[in-house]
């Protein structure tokens, strides 16, 4: 055992006397960073050539010795190197969660005379275009770190030889996702493939993309095509596995995924290792810095210096110029749009005595029990109760909210827009739209489209020469938001809807800023959302908490932390589950006589829910409760002790308005419009995706709850009532609707 850089480690497998034969050689060992540090990656340098390894492999006996329990984090590692003729020095480096590489071992080496010569590196000109974006993003992430340091990190990562791994017999299988690129949605990486064993039974398949969070994958799923390849392979017909794994925001690129298979006899084997480049398609992403020729020039100069330090040839001057122009073009295209910081004009609540006829067609993206449909229902109901106004509803997806609208006297029509959304061109899109939606526009004075997904309705209204009011609840840029569901040729149609609507309404300024570049026509407006305080107070007075808990099968004596919202990746319930796992031993020790439960309301069938349930079972989280989506949402505010929001992305979530009105202590991620809604002394606010911050905030909220400290909850209630009372906000939305209807 050796020690260096404060780490304990050993290189157990290496050529005798460090004399390398020609060809590939294996190095293997273990490393322990200490109780408060982690190793997130490992690489070897042979002179100036980097080779990436596979860290975080199970090391039975040592893991228990250092952690006093089985891992993760796991201590084992392997690296395959191919030293070149004449190489004289080997160095080993480990990476920590901050992204810092630290050398922990070095030794002189001798390489066989018949080993291949050092392969010539590709010239800097051939790599430049691909190096600029990651360097600029690192600069956004760590602006105080010198460009030269960041450039060395990017260049060395690009030069490193990755090490992937496939199953060895008697295992057989294939990793189908991710490959070279890994798609990320709200901090989660999709994983899929198939795996079988010739002589044993696979009990569990897990995946790991950071040092500590090992996620179970659903396995044993039907996979009939494998029989055509391996006709005699046991278990082939149910060899499919699927699932997700958390990927830390600061993960190095290329990132490393490891998939493990555990057999019935308890043996745990590495089945797959795959290096990939993460690509965010939803959720928080590190943006490029604002467009700047100076920043770009600094990046180019830093990369040039790093290339020289790494021994890269520059390449032809003409090739360098072409590469630099290409990199600049990509930067200019993807850099955040310039924000004008021009706030929209205020909207008066005064409609005078305007009782004129107004026939409103409300278009909502779906009819599920979700925040946006409830928002538009309350607005539509308010409009519908005004003299002279009638409302009907159109949606491309059916759902339980249909009954709610119809019960309030607003007829609902459902249309199938699948052909339009599958169109490859604007011409095909408009043709499919006209063929599907047969609205009698002579009976419409104003269209109100709910969410950016309803952009199509604005185009229909414009074609019929009717004014449209577009409510935008999203906080994600057009192109990234629609990439998974629309052809790129249709993206401009979404942007045209912003410019073509008579009025575009945002309830959060942070959301408006995302689309600020589309507001050239002066049609953007910022209007506060609302909460029906009188209705909430009446409900709270009329319903007993214990009775509501009995109604929904919840323990009347338990302390309930309630998360309300559709169970989906954007809402971040996997982070909620991670916090429950982290807190279980501490809460048991701190409050031994208390029963504390983590409740999630909004379960809908699907892979995400299945993976959450499997993970809760795997970790023995018997204090986690899943409840289905419901229209009786007030029940759960009333029966809760603490409200928890774990969303990665929210414009202006009504669940926080309502939980504050119910006087609940609030723990929430501090994303998008939430910062405009709640101050730090009104709620416990955390960064999205950080289970450690969330766990600390939950602990603080529980401590306040058990000591009777209601200060934050009362301040939140007062602020919400003052700024978002329905009696003040809804008349302003009504006034804007009447004003928009007068525009043609």
Features:
744 residues, alpha/beta, Immunoglobulin-like, Rossmann fold, 9-stranded mixed β-sheet, 23 helices
Summarize the structure.
The chain contains 23 helices and 33 strands. The chain has 744 residues and is of the alpha/beta class.
Count of folded domains = 4
Profile the largest sheet. 9 strands, mixed
Please report the distance between the alpha carbons of the first and last residues: 79 Å
Coarse morphology? globular
Secondary-structure class: alpha/beta
The level of helicity is 25-40%
CATH third-level topology of the largest domain? Immunoglobulin-like
Q: How would you sum up this structure, described in words?
A:
With 744 residues, the protein is α/β, with parallel strands linked by helices. The protein has 23 helices and 33 strands. Strands 12, 13, 14, 15, 16, 17, 18, 19 and 20 form a nine-stranded mixed sheet that branches. A seven-stranded parallel sheet has the order 23-22-21-24-25-26-27, with helices on both faces. The longest helix has 18 residues, at 124-141. The chain starts with a strand and ends with a helix. 43% of the residues are buried.
Strand-helix topology:
Elements: E1 2-4, E2 7-13, E3 19-20, E4 25-32, E5 41-46, E6 49-52, E7 54-57, H1 62-67, E8 76-81, E9 89-95, E10 101-108, E11 110-111, H2 124-141, H3 147-159, E12 171-177, E13 181-185, E14 188-197, E15 202-208, E16 214-216, E17 218-221, E18 240-246, E19 255-263, E20 268-282, H4 293-309, H5 317-334, E21 358-364, H6 371-384, E22 389-395, H7 401-407, E23 412-414, H8 418-421, H9 426-436, E24 446-450, H10 455-463, E25 468-472, H11 478-482, H12 491-500, E26 503-506, H13 509-514, E27 524-526, H14 533-542, H15 545-551, E28 559-564, H16 573-590, E29 596-603, H17 607-618, E30 624-628, H18 633-639, E31 642-645, H19 654-661, E32 666-669, H20 674-677, E33 684-686, H21 691-707, H22 711-724, H23 726-741
Parallel strand pairs: 3-11, 13-20, 21-22, 21-24, 22-23, 24-25, 25-26, 26-27, 28-29, 28-31, 29-30, 31-32, 32-33
Antiparallel strand pairs: 1-2, 2-4, 4-8, 5-6, 5-9, 7-8, 9-10, 12-14, 13-14, 14-18, 15-16, 15-19, 17-18, 19-20
